[in-house]
Amino acid sequence: MKRGLSFVTRVGLYSLGMLFLSLMAVAQNRTITGKVTDAQGNTPLPGVTVQVKGTSKGTQTGPDGTYKLEAPDSATTLIFTFVGYKRTEQQISTAGATNVSLPPDVTALKDVVVVGYGTQKKSEVTSAVTSINAEEFRQSGARNAMDLVQGKVAGLQITRQGGTNPNSGVTLQLRGVTSLTGSSSPLVVIDGIPGGNLDLLQQDDIASISVLKDGSAAAIYGTQANGGVILITTKRGKSGPTRVDYNSYVRKEFVQRRPKFLTPDQYAAKLASGEIIATDKGHRTDFVDLLVDHGNLTQNHNLSFSGGNESTTYRASVYYQDLQGIMKANTRQQYGGRLSLNTRGLNDKLSAQFNLASNFNKADLLGGGGALQGYYTFNPTYSPWNDDGTWYFERTSTNELARLHQETNRRQQQTTSGDAKVSLDMVKGLRASLFGSVQRDSYIDGAYRQLASESSVEDYQSSGFASQNSELKIKYAVEPTLEYNIRVHDDHNITAIAGYSYRYEVNQGFNASNYGFVNDLLEENNLEDGIQLGLGKAKMESYKNDNTLIAFFGRVNYSYKDKYLASLILRREGSSRFGVNNKWGNFPAASIGWNLSKEDFMSEVTFIDDLKLRAGYGVTGNSGIDNYSSLVTMGKGGTYINPDGIWRQTYGPNKNPNPNLKWEKKAEYNIGVDYSMFKGRLSGSIDVYRRVTTDVLETFDSQLPPFVTDKIYANVGTISGRGLEITVSGAPVKNKHFSWNADLAFSTARTTLDKFSNDIYKIARKEYGEIGGYGALGYAIRTYEHDRLGNFYGKRFAGFTEDGKWLFYKKDGTTARPEDINREEDYAVIGNAIPKYYLSLTNTFRYKGFDLRVFMRGKFGYDVLNTMEMFYGTKQSLPNNVLETAFTKHAQLKDSYQYSDYYLEKGGYMKLDEVTIGYTVPLHGNKWVKNVRFYLTGSNLATITKYTGNDPDFIKDTGLNPGIDAINTSDERTPYLSTRGFLAGLSVSF
Question: Cα separation of 183 and 109, whole Å?
């Protein structure tokens, strides 16, 4: 009995002990709850890792940002970690929930850069790649996506020849000219879509823009990468509750720089004094001002929705823009949207990305800068109206104001792109992906000139004129890839990608015109109503062409202990544009890097955070030539009478075939240094490069026979270039309430035409930049073998005779009149049109909720041919209106129009391009509004320059015919008034 009682007692005591210990354990643990949000937008952050410091206990936040975990009673601190945000430690609250707001880790966000077919850590990049994020974009209201980074990327020239004309684009050139007849522009890739259309991008939808500058980075894009590659990534949704962002601005522009022609009063005074022999009509008219839209007001609205959960995220945006130029009848209204969807399934092994974007725009093309020329020079004592109120017309000029009222020239355009990428993680480290895209761009241009218009009266027997043009472009791309990532013993990291690319493009168009209408009711919408169709005098044309590009490519990146880096690329590509004997080419690249800062011997150098040396070599090609360039093409010839007495149209070859035609090939070396010092307070990069482009294409004379025509397109020339690029970012002041950041970009380059002749094909020289205007003045730029591109070749000014006649130097140093100057012997290099140096400087200041950004940029060390002075700074143009300088600076000149260094001016300038001041409203604990920012921006505020012509920023500095400031439309140099703009913007997030 005692034995049994003793057993029961022992069991009871044991049970009580275990219960006591359990109670003790419960008493020593507690449940902690809380919520994690984004410190900037106050939005919940799902997937954040929450760990009890000093233990292995942890959890993750749910879709609403909340968490719950058990922690020992002795625990005092929680650790919160999340990709893209700073690691944060937070004391456990004794009063209730432990909430925390995670600040974004800007350094971490910038540490990943987009490269060809993927991304890389910035520390692992071994090529010359520059990435600009949205917070660094310009803020003066982009008309084109590339406006956002103008002046921000060393070596990338972005020139807007049309100024603020809303229907003008930008000219892009990276590290100088690479071709004489092919494309020299970079390849634009938007979210993986090769040859992406910039019209589909709005500034508020872009996350980053990366520029692959050297051959070792761009070689993976083969024959489309000679001019470099620009990769644009749009914004994506983030998991969490729906976020709504609204961005808007309005902009007003004012004439900033206008050529100084005689005012109406000045002109009338010279009429009265006899200095100008013409009729004073009694009016005082500022004709140019009549073309200015003083009521211009541009507006932009962008509304986006984003959000999702752990498996699916989305972002959708819609926008509307009404862009108004400084000129009348010069507008662009556009609207559209963008949708992106990212989803995961099969236990996160399957992922898919979908993008759809569309743009609809209506453009008024009538009032571009071309109208200015006639009104600059019009007699300002005239009126655009007759005394009875009708429009004044005369054969020797065009009434531009009447044209704006009596003619139309409108474009309706619709551009759409769609792409999808599906990826499957097959085994650990191996991923298969399939990417496909399609772009469709179409437009219809319609123009009409009323029966009573000046053009109709003078050229079409007062019967009106109508035309329609249409074009459709479709681009298809399919690219399957395999990616493999492996890390061996934590020391060796290998990333490889292999893929296939298929691209097909087709272009077709139609245009027709007619005249002889009986009324203006239907304008260009009933072309058949014009009587000239039946008389065989109407015009009709159509075309269609296509091309195909196929490639196999691969890249292997290797890293050893994150110190020693290497990258190898090979792309084999074929294009239908090349000859049957040269359809395929190989484009290899190799680059290496060394992270010195990770070496033990650098451990004592405490002021250096990161220091990386890199070197690369890559070969790229150029397929930017016309379709069917290698083939014989057929076309119409003349009409001839046949033996049967009937006239018949002939048809036959109009171009020689060239089965050996191939891509232009560029080999490029690049050596660079990336650095960061003083805990990120000073960082930047330095790049030195040399590039040689061989097999440059040009048109040469060919012998008849055996060739069927007298010209042939062939690979002969060589172009070389070298340059230096420097970027520096600094934070001179950085404390709790105030910070100052400065960013500088500098580049210099020189490009030489080494040769364009061989034993078979020979060219003595090439001439570019037709001057146009009065007289047969020829070409401004002449290039011989071994010459620097952009050399002005012409007469050297030696002064004037006593009676105001030109004198120029001959080769032997004597002076002579123009008729005695030999164009071949006496002409010399008189200047160069390509800037030697580019510089930009951005200063950003922040004080509490205020921010101030000052952006300056400039070009230096080049010359500009001032054709406005050449044509209108002389009394030779009288009685048309002339520049004031015709009676001051050039008063001695009393001779014909001549091209010489007399009209060359230094084009260098430094521009206060943008000043933005903003204020972010403090919203402490607001549940509805997450962010509110107001900002004001002034653009093109001041220009420091000695150049006296148009705004030097509008003058072309790219291609083979730069540096010619013109008031005519030759060489695509269309003038436009320089403007100073002021913008008021608002950004709100909910």
Answer: 34
Task: Locate 934 and state its tokens.
Answer: 């107001």
Q: Name the one residue in this structure whose structure tokens are 């945006």.
A: 317
Distance CA 915, CA 917 (A): 7
Q: What is the pLDDT of residue 260?
A: 93
Neighbours of 533 (CB within 10 A): 18
Please tell me the predicted confidence (pLDDT) of residue 298: 96
Q: Are 940 and 251 in contact (CB under 8 A)?
A: no
Amino acid 11: pLDDT: 39
Q: How much helix, strand and coil, in percent to the nearest 5, is found in the chain?
A: 15, 50, 35
Residue 153, φ and ψ in degrees, nearest 5: -115, 115
ω into 194 cis (within 30 of 0): no
Helix residue ranges per DSSP H, 244-298: 264-273, 287-290
Residue 227's identity, in one-letter code, is G
Q: Residue 260: how many CB atoms within 10 A of its CB?
A: 13
Predicted confidence at residue 14, as pLDDT, reads 47
Residue with tokens 């005591």: 13
Q: Where are the beta strands (DSSP E) in 273-393?
A: 298-308, 312-324, 331-345, 350-364
Query: In sequence order, what are the residues at sequence separation of 6 or more whose Cβ sits closer than 8 angstroms to the Cβ of residue 18?
Result: none
- Cβ(579)–Cβ(628) below 8 Å: no
The residue length of the chain stands at 990
Could you tell me if 990 and 930 are in contact, meaning their C-beta atoms sit under 8 angstroms apart?
yes
The C-alpha atoms of residue 731 and residue 426 are separated, in whole angstroms, by 45
Using a 10 angstrom Cβ sphere, with 0-12 exposed, 13-18 middle and 19 or more buried, the burial of residue 835 is: buried
Residue in 713, 862, 858 with CA at minimum distance from that of residue 789: 862
Coil, helix or strand for 226? coil
Q: Which residues pair with 38 in a beta bridge?
A: 102
pLDDT < 70 stretches in the chain: 1-28, 40-42, 56, 83-84, 95-96, 105-110, 775, 925, 966-974
Distance CA 741, CA 730 (A): 6
State the CB neighbour count (10 A cutoff) for residue 500: 13
Q: Are 199 and 550 in contact (CB under 8 A)?
A: no
Q: Are strands 112-115 and 100-102 parallel, antiparallel or unpaired?
A: unpaired
Q: For residue 501, which amino acid is it?
A: S
Q: Which residues pair with 421 in a beta bridge?
A: 353, 435
pLDDT of residue 84: 64
Distance CA 864, CA 780 (A): 10
Cα 513 from Cα 527, distance rounded (Å) = 7
Q: Report the C-alpha gap between 984 and 250 in whole angstroms.
A: 6
> Please, are residues 989 and 243 in contact by the beta-carbon 8 Å criterion?
yes
Burial class (CB within 10 angstroms; exposed 0-12, middle 13-18, buried 19+) of 596: middle
Q: Which pLDDT does position 929 carry in this prediction?
A: 85
Q: Any idea what DSSP says for residue 377?
A: S
Burial (CB < 10 A; 0-12, 13-18, 19+), residue 422, is middle
Q: What Rg value do the Cα atoms of the chain yield, rounded?
A: 34
Q: Position of tokens 């850590």?
A: 121
Distance CA 171, CA 158 (A): 6
Non-local CB neighbours of 169 within 8 Å, separated by 6+ positions: 144, 160, 162, 198
